[in-house]
Fold each of these.
Amino acid sequence: MKKIVIIICVIVICIVISVTYAYSIYKGNVNQVQKFNNEFSKYINQEFYGNELATIINLAIDNNERYSIPKDSTGKYIADDMYSLRVDVYMTDTEKTYSMELLNSGEISNLVYNYSNIKFKCTEVEYHKKTNRISYLYIEQIS
């Protein structure tokens, strides 16, 4: 009888440990996604200057590099369904939308130099369905 009680206790302890471990992994992932989204959510529907636009582009490119997001033949990151991040910027002075890759290829320092006193606003955001991470930001020049 003692052996059966001990076996049941060991099984219960293993189940409790497994559930606790799974929950801590889940909570860690949720916190990681929340931290990632917070880096960008402060810009959503808010006005900011060109130097902060450069920060957003750098963060997006760093994210894509960290997760080894592949590029297509034109040098643009290929969207995936978990970790990729795209940023498009509409410039009113040229009436064109530019990808983050194009703006980055023209040296981010030039962007900061030419647009540091210009205001921008993030007007559209999309999220990955699988991970709830931000997947797309559309930013418009407003002045």
Amino acid sequence: MLQLRKILVVEDDALIAMELGERLSDMGYEVVGPAHSIAEADALLERQTPDAALLDASLAGGASSVPLGIKLHAKGVRVAFCTGYDKVKDAPPELAKAPVFTKPVSDADLRAGLEKLLA
């Protein structure tokens, strides 16, 4: 049986998170989450390790997902950011090459970016 690639979704906007999760499922990925905060993401990560993570760069209350991205990178999880901005603020060297998908991201760009990320 084919093992689906697991994608952690961290997105504070519930509607965007739900829609993104549905799109990823339709593309053949297993969605972990979505998590709406760093705390929720940490709780999910205690139970399983995804193959990749799609992080909203800026979460509710101005919280940055960069520290989570660093932690995921250290665990060998590939990280991409999905944000309304064209770059991620304060991204450290280990995340400098992380793909940045600018919202709203098309299915074609999302699929191609994830395929490249997971290659």
Amino acid sequence: MTDADDVLRARANLAAATARAAAAERRLQAVRRYHELHQLLRRFHLSRTSGGGVQLPHLLDAGTLSALRLKTVDWVSTGRVGLKPLWLGFISLGGECGILEFDAYLHGAWEMSERDHSVLEQVCWEYETFGSL
């Protein structure tokens, strides 16, 4: 064997090790998202189906739902707040997405801009503080 063969073998081993490390990192991130999701579910006393048979979004497994999104989905799905009044409160404070995009955001199928996310946080804060929209 020559030095060139050793170098080629070392490069191949390095590439294989790098691929294994990347796969391990993806698995670790998935496990972290899984645990974060379950902490949020416990925090908001939710499960895959809450007591009334309300279906939470199927994207929960992907870890895409923030605490804000979980809270608003819970409010809308349990009838605590209607989708339209929540959206109207959002629009009245300067939110810029339509009701379809707003509903898609709540169900994990669309992402809001950072600005719209901040507006929704304000709407939720006002609702929790003052009890109405």
Amino acid sequence: MTGPKHPERDALDRLADALVEDILSTPDEDILAEFREQGGDAARAAADMRALFETSVIAANKRCLVAAKAGAAASRRSAPSAFALRAPMDIAEARRRLHDALQNPQSGARLTLAARKESELSDDDIRGMIEDLEDLGILPPDDGADGKS
């Protein structure tokens, strides 16, 4: 849907486009010569603009840092309640539990094919899969006392 037509606004837009095109098509030397004629110091103006740009970048980076710190603090505050700390897991017991889960017809049908090759998985992969299966309720949680569920 288009709004009402504004011929005056359209004319101003065309004038602005023409002025921008004129400036962009003017050679740099012509612009610098005109700037010097008006008493400008090109090197000083460039240094001022660089300093302004750097100040803007630093301010933006500080805002990002403040936001990141706030996010990290919020994550730390919510992490203990969101993720229970787990006791170290015996890898032999973890491999046995994963193997048993894969052999169980009730849980095996719900596991992906990637999980079925437990002999090729690293210890960290096994531990991660056991934790995931516990979180999903496929395996009962390990009480951690004797390494058995």
